[in-house]
Design brief:
The complex is a heterodimer of chains A (about 160) and B (about 450). Chain A is mostly helical and about 160 residues long. Chain A contains 5 helices and no strands. Chain A has one domain. Chain A is globular. The N terminus of chain A is likely disordered. Chain B has 2 domains: about 160 residues, Ferritin; about 290 residues, no CATH class. Chain B has a two-stranded antiparallel sheet with strand order 1-2. The chains are: A mainly alpha (about 160), B mainly alpha (about 450). The interface between A and B is medium-sized, with 23 and 14 residues.
Chain lengths: ~160, ~450
């Protein structure tokens, strides 16, 4: 987990929002690979799946709140991206009701992973390329804003869990 | 009756694999084949070629091994389909005869798509490209006569005129000018998307074909003509692909590719006059219906999008080959002097600014003269006239005048004159008959050499 933006201090190197998003994508992909390596009877499967879903949810909300509104000025792909988030949320909601042990679980993981990878491909080859037109300073500012938003959403989630 | 491909069942993928002998079917006889059957074969090879190019490009950026395996499974089948189709062309059909047929495809396909295109801007783009391909046919026809002593109508069967349009020496543009304005994916008519993809696929295979086969001729004039025209086809691919909305997602594009393949096979099946070839179109349509279902399912499953909202519910008929003579004639008369200008627009030759960007490039590539003019001059020297073929004799008479008057402000140094009488034969270092003579017409085999050949008025 990256250091809180507020703790980075003045002069610290801020991550561009495009790099932050790509970093999140890589992390989720690695978590999917880990999940696929687990045996069907592994009790940790559900816990890891929950972490993936949490990660995706925080990422998507932070992106929608802190990045997409600004990116809309330079990219015509935001409507598609938002629709992609909504589709993913629906698929996750349907999937979460499944029993970890049942055969559909593996199929469900493959489906969610497929949806995520498709979204990642479109975002990285589309919106993140379009966003380069915003310039380095703006991308860094948005990077800080998105990181702060992620942290705020994570804190809320932790409070709820407690 | 129009077909909704989403309501049809195709052949299951596992049953689409064929044996090598089933893949390599007997070719058509070039003496018997209907010119438009040959056009359909050439076009469908181009459609399958684009399917392969696209699928590989998609696979290279995707991180989803399940998706990549699915793409590879379809490619394996479509590879067989392309083999079958392209190898229907017979071994005794020369490269230049095939080239003439490629240009017939480009002309008749572009004209039909322009005639039926619902978007006026896309239609204008098609008209512009049409007049360039039309002129290519005229240039290659000079070469066919010079090298093989054949009349282009042996291939064209009188369905397509052979006349100059926008002179090829002027087709070389600043790349920025070739970029047109794209359609909007949510507002464009599905037929426009299919038309653009079909034409882009056709131009792409033409570029690849010329680039691949140009070396098979020893004559410098022939090699240079292939080099020149293949570079124009390169520009055509740039032009047509720029019409596509870049925000179409990869899965939308995949689905649209499969839909376009269905539309083209469907048209071929409905219009084919050769029953044996017609059966091939029918089987391949059945294969493509399954490919479309697979791609559409992926679009629905991974992006939650209804493929029918992307493609529409009705197959258009892009691969319709029929007479477009009247349409093409009008386009030549009205648009030969159009040129590309910035912003995806067109202007008349006499409206071009002095610093028109394409001139810089034309000065560079045409510095030693234009190969497309060389072949006209050579034909004039060999036969007294350039080779033209038109249903209307008046258009043959006016061809030379049209060719010269539609040039841009800086004609190439070797621009062929309106008529042979204005032509001063080029001095050559080697005497006729020398082994080092690079003439296209071998003087040893040409009994008329060096007799002066008939001039104007003796027929073309």
């Amino acid at each position: 987990m990256a250091a809180p933006a507020a703790a980075q201090g003045k002069g610290a190197l801020a991550m561009r929002v495009t790099d932050l998003i790509a970093q999140d994508h890589r992390r989720v992909r690695e978590m999917f690979l880990e999940l696929e390596r687990m045996d069907a009877g592994d009790g940790e499967r559900r816990a890891l799946l929950d972490r993936i879903v949490d990660e995706l949810d925080v990422h998507a909300r932070a992106e929608e709140d802190a990045f997409y509104p600004a990116a809309r000025a330079v990219s015509r792909r935001i409507d598609d991206a938002e629709a992609g988030h909504a589709y993913l949320r629906n698929a996750i909601a349907a999937f979460r009701a499944l029993d970890v042990e049942c055969a559909d679980f593996t199929l469900g993981v493959r489906l969610i992973k497929g949806i995520v990878l498709s979204h990642v491909l479109e975002e990285e080859s589309g919106i993140l390329m379009d966003a380069q037109r915003m310039g380095g300073d703006e991308l860094e500012r948005l990077g800080v804003a998105m990181q702060e938003r992620k942290e705020a959403l994570t804190r809320i989630r932790c409070k709820r869990a407690a | 009756m129009a077909m909704n491909p989403f309501e049809e069942r195709g052949i299951p993928l596992e049953r689409q694999i064929r044996t090598w002998s089933q893949v390599t079917l007997p070719p058509y006889r070039k003496q018997d084949v209907d010119a438009f059957t040959r056009c359909r074969i050439i076009l469908m090879n181009g459609i399958e070629n684009e399917a392969s190019v696209f699928s590989h490009a998609f696979a290279r950026v995707s991180d989803d091994s399940e998706l990549k395996a699915g793409l590879a499974a379809l490619r394996r089948v479509e590879h067989q389909q392309q083999n079958t189709i392209n190898w229907l062309n017979p071994a005794d059909q020369s490269v230049l005869e095939t080239t003439i047929a490629f240009e017939q495809v480009a002309i008749e396909l572009t004209a039909y798509l322009a005639r039926t295109e619902p978007d006026p801007y896309v239609k204008q783009a098609f008209d512009f490209g049409l007049l360039e391909d039309f002129d290519h046919l005229y240039r290659y026809s000079q070469l066919l006569d010079l090298i093989h002593g054949k009349d282009p109508n042996e291939v064209l069967q009188g369905r397509t005129d052979v006349l100059p349009a926008r002179p090829t020496q002027d087709h070389h543009n600043d790349p920025f000018l070739r970029l047109l304005n794209h359609y909007e994916k949510t507002r464009a008519h599905p037929r426009s998307k299919v038309n653009v993809l079909t034409l882009m696929a056709g131009e792409q295979q033409t570029m690849n074909f010329y680039k691949t086969v140009g070396h098979t001729y020893g004559s410098p004039e022939a090699r240079q003509l292939y080099a020149e025209i293949s570079s124009v086809e390169e520009e055509h691919v740039t032009q047509y692909e720029s019409l596509m909305d870049p925000t179409e997602t990869w899965l939308e594009r995949w689905t649209m590719h499969e839909f376009t393949e269905c539309a083209n096979y469907y048209t071929c099946m409905e219009t084919e006059v050769d029953p044996r070839i017609g059966k091939i179109w029918e089987i391949f349509l059945a294969c493509e219906l399954e490919h479309l279902r697979i791609a559409g399912d992926a679009l629905q499953r991974l992006q939650g999008k209804d493929p029918q909202e992307v493609c529409g519910r009705e197959l258009p008929t892009p691969a319709t080959f029929e007479s477009n003579r009247e349409y093409v004639t009008r386009a030549i008369q009205e648009q030969s002097d159009l040129r590309l200008v910035a912003g995806g627009k067109w202007a008349r030759v006499d409206e071009l600014p002095e610093d028109w960007p394409s001139l810089v490039y034309q000065r560079a590539v045409n510095a030693d003269g234009s190969p497309s003019e060389s072949v006209v001059r050579l034909r004039m020297e060999a036969a007294g006239v350039d080779l033209v073929r038109a249903a209307d004799p008046a258009r043959e008479e006016a061809a030379g005048e049209h060719r010269v008057t539609s040039l841009d402000p800086e004609p190439a140094a070797n621009t062929a004159p309106v008529e042979y009488t204005e032509l001063t034969p080029v001095e050559r270092e080697a005497a006729p008959g020398d082994h080092d003579d690079a003439r296209l017409v071998n003087p040893v085999e040409d009994p008329t050499w060096p007799r002066r050949l008939p001039r104007k008025g003796k027929g073309r």
